[in-house]
Amino acid sequence: MLTSFILLILLATLHWLLSLHVLRSNRHAPENWAFAFFALFAGLWTVSIAVAHHIPRSTLVVTRLTFVLGAILAFTFLRMAFITVDVPSLWLRLGPLAVFLTAAFSVLALTSYVVVDARLVQTGLTVGYGVAYPLFASHIVLYFAVGFLLLASSYRRAFGLMRARLRCLIMSLSLPILGAVTTNLLLPLLFNRSTVGVYGPVFAIIFFALTVHGFIRYRLFDVTLFITHSATSLLALLVSLIPSSVFLLVCWSRLADTFRPTELLFFLMAFVLVGAATPAIRQTTGRALDSYVFRTRPDYKGALREASRLLTRVLSLNSLLRLIAKTIADSIGATSVTIFLLREDGSFWAVCNETSRPETSPPLVLPDSIQRTLTEFKKPVILDAAGGHEPSHGPRTEPHEVLFVPVVSGDEVIGVVALGSKRSGDPFFSQDIDLLSTLANQAGVAIKNAQLYEQVVLINEYLQNIVGT
Q1: Which phi and psi angles does 417 have, rounded to 5°?
Q2: Residue 334, number of CB atoms within 10 A of its CB
Q3: Is 377 exposed, middle or buried (0-12, 13-18, 19+ CB in 10 A)?
Q4: Residues 336, 419: contact at Cβ < 8 Å?
Q5: What DSSP character marks residue 363?
Q6: Architecture of domain 306-464 in CATH?
Q7: Whether 147 contacts 166, CB under 8 Å
Q8: What does the longest C-alpha to C-alpha distance in the chain come to?
Q9: Residue ranges of the alpha helices (H) in 182-228?
Q10: Residue 422 pairs with which residues in a beta bridge?
Q11: Burial 282-318 (b: 16+ CB within 10 A, else e)
């Protein structure tokens, strides 16, 4: 009983917060005011339901007040529908009638014609309905039906963003209203019992979820929500606890009989902590196992064929360098690839960087000692974690920081490809180094062709300028 009462009060508070937020977003828009009033009276109606079903004082008065608030809530929905579809001429004709009927049925709800008696017993709230109750229920159903017909007709005529907003609004309202009308009007009318009426406001959870979805995706009512990463992480954590919470609810009666209240409290705390830690542990373990255990069979021949096909199709030097870096990174699985080209003064400068971890993999640096070794031996060089380096002649048995592969054209080193450590943490094996050497040789031919192509383009532009003058 206490849990359902707290839940209803929490839902009412959410209604009021939603009303305030929509109103603050645009105080000059009539549709925002209409939605804010609807959410306001939805919260008041929810509070009256909570009090009527849980507090045994003045049950008859509170129950009749609940019906009054229900009539006003239906009117605010109808008014919101008219404002949303923007038909002021139709409201001028039907509005006064709607106001009169709402006032009349609100007064009628305070009499014994709608509610004769209301008592809170052990099985729940029991209400004795008067002779005018079917008429009262019919007028509320009529208000909701007319409102939805107006929204549906406007939806059929709308397009683009307005159509998406109307669709989201109709979905967010239809399911909760249908549920509340069923539990709080139709079932009492058919079975003359109100015990299920406490569940009517709970359908507002759907309303909140779909309305927030409309705010995020379509800026419904011009409302913009800025949700931080910590909020999304918390929401993901709560969602991950749902299956365990359902299992806990199923076993709650047995747990309550087995444990004392203090033990049960510690059990719940441990349950929440374990449930919260499980996704993080699974994610961390998955990353570690993917890095240490997961391996794919390398296709060296396929990588060479694909590289040859791609490198022969590109003549733009910048596009070619990005393609070379990406091809090498995908073939070896390196965390970062940096390409250096030879300048006219004999120095190398970084012209392209491809990385899978931008936040932790800055562009690699080519030390002068490595440049001299590459120019002299024209073979790949490995720079280990201790800072030592040597030409690579065979397989290595430990991971290394950086592998430098010379890009040779003829007998000249025209560039260097620097590779960071593998994403898997493996060392660079002899097959990797052989593949990189072959790719670097192909890249050398392609880079030389691209440089010659750029020179030809510049010469043609120069000649055209001379002819033009």
Answers
A1: -105, 120
A2: 26
A3: middle
A4: yes
A5: P
A6: 2-Layer Sandwich (3.30)
A7: no
A8: 105
A9: 187-191, 204-218
A10: 334
A11: eeeeeeeeeeeeeeeeeeeeebeeebeebbeebeebe
Q: What sections of 219-260 are H helices per DSSP?
A: 229-240, 242-250, 252-258
In this model, does residue 282 exceed pLDDT 80? no
CA gap 102, 108 in Å, rounded: 10
Rama region for 425: left / alpha / beta (φ>0; ψ in -120 to 50; rest): left
The per-residue pLDDT for 207 is 95
167-184 burial by CB neighbour count: b if 16+ within 10 A, else e?
ebbbbbbbebbebbbbbb
Non-local (6+) Cβ contacts of 267 within 8 A are 255, 259
Please provide residue 299's backbone torsions phi and psi, each rounded to the nearest 5 degrees: -110, 85
Residue ranges covered by each domain of the chain: 2-226, 306-464
Q: Which CATH number fits domain 2-226: 3.65.10.20, 3.20.20.10, 1.20.1070.10, 3.40.50.280?
A: 1.20.1070.10
pLDDT at 183 over 80: yes
Q: Is the overall model pTM greater than 0.85, yes or no?
A: no
Which residue type, as a one-letter code, is found at position 72? I
Question: Residue 123 above 80 pLDDT?
Answer: no
Q: Which two tokens stand for residue 111?
A: 């009499």
Per-residue pLDDT reduced to its tens digit, 6-33: 899 999 999 999 999 999 988 999 999 9
User: What is the length of the chain?
Assistant: 469
Alpha helices in 55-159 (DSSP H): 59-85, 88-109, 133-157
The half-sphere exposure of 431 on its side-chain side, counting CA atoms within 13 A, is 10
Tokens of 409: 């054209």
